[in-house]
């Protein structure tokens, strides 16, 4: 396949590019050329900003995988520009699109956040992140119809990625894992390598629609013990309630976000490796001299 990745040299996008090349795909990367510029010399590199994507004005691809779509304005431009020159459009979305936070077992058909009236399409704040992703999904569906996929993920762990990087550093240095959540709070995550493989798979298979690309739900305590298991004798977890440090809800009002139904993704080929495997990979990556990027939240 001829793949176009919007992004592709940072965090999860780097894993997607590696997976595409490993599968023998002909790869083109479009990004600003500011991060890891020497990566993937075998790929074609197009330079540009999402707000001014003139470099995408020519060329044809079997599929595009959009890893850098955040502003609705930019999504609209790339959709219009690529509509007739790509076979399939896979969009990296988020579980933040869901309007409900307390309902367990939500499928991909659950209500999504509405776009706030009068909100600017060229700005992004934490309050607009979920609505922006939801609006982008709708925009792409209108433009590409059955030729588009939305992959909704939450926490993404492992090398090059920020989520739970502090736990990887703790394992690498013999310190206790720190957690600001309740021990019984539900959590869903995905290893970056598994998510990259799934993004590529639904793209190759041209699977239309949305997918909750997350692990089975577990408690934070269970996940923490899985991470601790890779270093026998690790110190106990330091539990410090978030309500004290960050003034975040600590009453279960957000639990439904991490009790999603992932059966559709599993049926489409999502594979989820054990949490301990992700923990070990993160720890060894840090021990090799790498530093996780700062988390976005």
Protein architecture, described:
There is one protein chain. The chain is built from nine helices and 13 strands. The protein is of the alpha/beta class. The chain has a seven-stranded parallel beta sheet with strand order 3-2-1-4-5-6-11, with helices on both faces. Helix 6 (220-228) packs across helix 9 (275-287). The chain is globular, with a radius of gyration of 19 Å. 40% of the residues are buried.
Provide tags for this entry.
9 helices; globular; 297 residues; alpha/beta; 18% strand; 32% helix; two-stranded parallel ribbon; single chain
Quick structural overview:
By secondary structure, the chain is α/β, with parallel strands linked by helices. 32% of the residues lie in helices and 18% in strands.
Tally of DSSP helical segments = 9
User: End-to-end distance, in Å?
Assistant: 35 Å
Main sheet strand line-up: 3-2-1-4-5-6-11
Largest sheet: 7 strands, parallel
Shape: globular
What is the string of helix and strand elements? EHEEEHEHEEHEEEHEEHEHHH
Helix content: 25-40%
Using only C-alpha atoms, the radius of gyration works out to: 19 Å
| Uncertain runs | none
What is the average per-residue confidence, as pLDDT, rounded to a whole number?
Answer: 94
Which helices and strands appear, and what pairs or packs with what?
Layout: E1 2-6, H1 11-22, E2 26-31, E3 44-47, E4 61-66, H2 72-82, E5 86-94, H3 126-144, E6 148-153, E7 155-157, H4 165-173, E8 178-179, E9 186-187, E10 189-191, H5 192-204, E11 209-212, E12 218-219, H6 220-228, E13 238-239, H7 242-245, H8 263-267, H9 275-287
Parallel strand pairs: 1-2, 1-4, 2-3, 4-5, 5-6, 6-11, 7-10, 8-13
Antiparallel strand pairs: 9-12
Helix pairs in contact: 1-5, 2-3, 4-9, 6-9
